Structures are given as C-alpha cells and as structure tokens.
Amino acid sequence: MSIEFITELESKIDALIESYNAARRERDELQTRLDEANGRMGELERENQELKGEIERLGGASAEQQNKLDSAAERIQTIISKLEAVS
User: Residue-wise pLDDT tens for the chain (87 aa)?
Assistant: First the structure.
C-alpha cells in the first residue's frame, strides 16, 4: 500500500466519521423535538378533556336555567290569565 492510498483512505474515513456524527446530532435533535411535541400533545389532550367537561357542565347549567325561565313564564301566564279574568 502506498502512502497516498493510506492518506486518501484516512481522509475518507474521517469524512465518514464526520457524516456519522452529523447524522447522530440531527437524530438527537429530531428526537428532542419529537419528545417536546409529544409532551405538548399530551397537554392539549388534557386541556381538551377539561374543556369537554366544562362544556357539559355549562350545558347542564343552561338547561337548568331554561327550566327556571320556562317555569317563571308559566307562572306569569297564570297571573296574566287571572288578571284578565278579573277585568
């Protein structure tokens, strides 16, 4: 083997090592980003569940308020009918 061949081989090996290290750094960065995205997704899913629960509670409260309004409207109609009967 000639010195030139060994020098060229060493240069190619160094380039391969650098490419490998660069790919490894990129993989690590992508893994970090993926982990962060997964964490954020978990947070959003929990928030979504909380909001769904709040919507259900508000729907129940709204229905209860509507029932009270309907009951009050019936009582008012009854009072109006009584007043009309007296007139």
Answer: 699 999 999 999 999 999 999 999 999 999 999 999 999 999 999 999 999 999 999 999 999 999 999 999 999 999 999 888 887
CA angle, 8 then 11 then 14, to 5°:
150
Amino acid identity at 36: E
Predicted TM-score (pTM) of the model is 0.59
Distance CA 13, CA 6 (A): 10
Number of domains in the chain: 1
Asked if residue 52 is part of any domain, the answer here is: yes
